[in-house]
Amino acid sequence: MQSASDRHEYPAHWEADVVLRDGGTARIRPITVDDAERLVSFYEQVSDESKYYRFFAPYPRLSAKDVHRFTHHDFVDRVGLAATVGGEFIATVRYDRIGADGMPASAPADEAEVAFLVQDAHQGRGVASALLEHIGAVARERDIRRFAAEVLPANTKMIKVFTDAGYTQKRSFEDGVVRLEFDLEPTDRSLAVQYAREQRAEARSVQRLLVPGSVAVVGVGRTPGGVGRSVLGNIRDAGFTGRLYAVNRAFPEDLKELDGVPAHRTVRDIEEQVDLVVVAVRAEYVPEVVTECGEHGVQGLVVLSAGYAESGPDGRERQRELVRHARAYGMRIIGPNAFGVINTSADVRLNASLAPEMPRPGRIGLFAQSGAIGIALLSRLHRRGGGVTGVTGVSTFVSSGNRADVSGNDVLQYWYDDPDTDVALMYLESIGNPRKFTRLARRTAAAKPLVVVQGARHGGAAPQGHAVRATRLPHATVSALLRQAGVIRVDTITELVDAGLLLARQPLPAGPRVAILGNSESLGLLTYDACLAEGLRPLPPLDLTTAASAADFHEALSHALADETCDAVVVTAIPAIGDASTGDAELAEALRTAAERVPGKPVLVVHVELGGLAEALSAAASTAPRSGSAAPGSALRTHPIRPLDFPVEAPPQPADTPADAPRLIPAYPAAERAVRALGEAVRYAQWRREAAEPGKVPEYEDIDEKGAARLIDGLLARGQGLTLGMDETCDLLGKYGIEAHRALHAPTPDTAADAARTLGYPVALKATAPHLRHRADLGGVRLDLADEEQLRRAYAELTDLFGKPEELRPVVQRMAPRGVDTVVRAVIDPAAGAVLSFGLAGAASQLLGDTAHRLVPVTDREATSLIRSIRTAPLLFGWRGSTPVDTPALEELLLRVSRLVDDHPEVVAVTLEPVVVATHGLSVLGASVRLAPPPARDDLGPRTLPTY
Questions:
Q1: How far is the C-alpha of 927 from the C-alpha of 705, rounded, in Å?
Q2: pLDDT of 906-936, one tens digit each?
């Protein structure tokens, strides 16, 4: 709660940019006394019917008293928000706190009346739904727990806004008015509604950039060469199906056409609607272009111009202003410093990029933050796209540059339900919002594979052009969390392409069992070893000998695919003696026909310098892309290209490959690469099966959530952040059913004896000085002290070895049953959110990094897998004849810690070390908790676009 002295301070953190249902953007901000003229202008543009629905009577204009009331707020009991586009209001919402009698009130009253008004031209865009999310978050921040709204029965649109929001609500009808009351506490349904709306809106905003009906390129040079002229030629040569315009203020007034494209001096001069503008002018001229585009109704921008955040602090501020400027007009931006976008769909055929050739159409989506890496990926897919039933190509490509606005998260939203994309490949140099990325990745990966390689992961900082939230988590932890979300994490772009080729046209394996067959015993053994290294279960390789014919390969592959003990097949091949070209084509056809008979198992080919096999694999079926002059059955010849170049001759352009097209068989030049891709597919398939039953977050009847909240509030009243003492830590953990053994301080031998009598023998005596804490190997712990004599003797030994008691900080603790020492931690990372970690105490976790991680809240299935995912897990389950420990008790502890952190965002760190897990039960022998005020907004807050 704010105090009386700061009730009128402007809450700048309520300002936000949002994406609306149609993909456009709006800015939501508090209404202030300076908005009087905007409010009057807005009201004049609202229809009489909408005014009637708002005020229940004809209300043609606002009086001076109305304007004062609707623009003067205390931002506590009376709050008004406006949605703006181009600086002008398009919708408003306000709440007024009321008491039990329905009259204006102040805290502790926790109910408010809420009312909306949306300009008719913007109704149906989801503006009211977005405003409801934001005014609800504001109300919760001001300790308002419930909204009430009175609506005329005929105002069905507004009733639907409230009923569809997913909140728990009551509905009544009295005096011709529908009264709705609903709690503002987020529910599973309200969050599901919010996320679904977020996905549709952000996907639509990207679709507007990738599927434009018209494109203008601003900055087209009058002479050949230059970025603008090159992009214009790329769009034209790709066969863009929409309207295309060339724009340059320097064009002569009588110039009407350039390279066959209509030419204009400014965007304003174009009479038709322009959906997308590619900006290729110097950075200092970009603001003028943005203003022209915004006033002309352009939907989005691809900014190729450099000179922004990658150039230093001044450029970073220039970049922020660019985003603010564009969003003010409802536009989204790819870039700046972008490479461009590509959409190979036959209905679009857009190459608004610096890539001189259109890539092959296909079903792989590509996202790269780096232009150089993006073109390398396109090049490798072109070279390696061959397969038994055709080529694997690209559906859409986005290179975001500095990703000041549109990011990988937005593109994931688009790919999630894009029918033309089966596999998503992403090269990321930074993740602006890891928490959201993980959430979106989990949902996307449940529908289609998502393969990610992260660059700049060991540099300690994001690339200069990228502004990201700071994270305290090491890269290995972030990678583990991404894998938990179903992301296929690879280390190089070669592995990225290898995995993409397999996943794009091969079914997921049902398990890790792999059959190996081929005409080289040595290559088969290499493949066998590679499978073992990847954790797969290879069957003994079948050597067909170098004399094997295409028919022999066909028979062996057919037999292997029919074998119920095999989940995937790797075919190895070395060059045949004789006419290699003919042999390649025959082998490709043999493999294709055999694989068609059992389409449910993946097949991979490892070939060693078979000159024509890659081409033969690409042309072995009639569905392979061919030029118009190619004869049926002729092979598609690819052109050799350098790593960062495209073919001199454009590849043939077929119609889009249907989603149910025959499966491609990818070919790999090395066994290790093929098996590594297969291993990733096996692990991803296992994740998909487990994700189908994610488990649940259990409820525990002995958890006192409200009592813990009161305790936390009282403790935080002392200051902004604090580490709790032992008694406070035990009290808070106890509210969640976690019993921590209390350690009593023993500054003298006498106090140690008193503590032991209080706890009861046997006891342990421990030194807790920082250099000795959790270091039993240094001798700072004495266990199983059965009486006072042994305790005093141990006390003397410790002081003789390590110094005075004030240096040792000794404590006495009740002995716990012996078992395996473990450590449980939970931290709130500013970027990734709440993370729960588990490992064995001591060298295993500290020296070897053998620690597993899960995102909070953790489900029962995740707790089970968390314990089993560390390398030293066998020590918990009876390794080498030892007695297994009580892992169900350990799982319950993890779930309770997860609940504590999830229920109370003020708990920013919990460490339980050691947790001794015995045969029956466990003992928490050390515990620390740190509290801090929660952020004003969290993951349960309203939809907002990030500001970098």
A1: 19
A2: 999 999 988 999 999 999 998 999 999 876 5
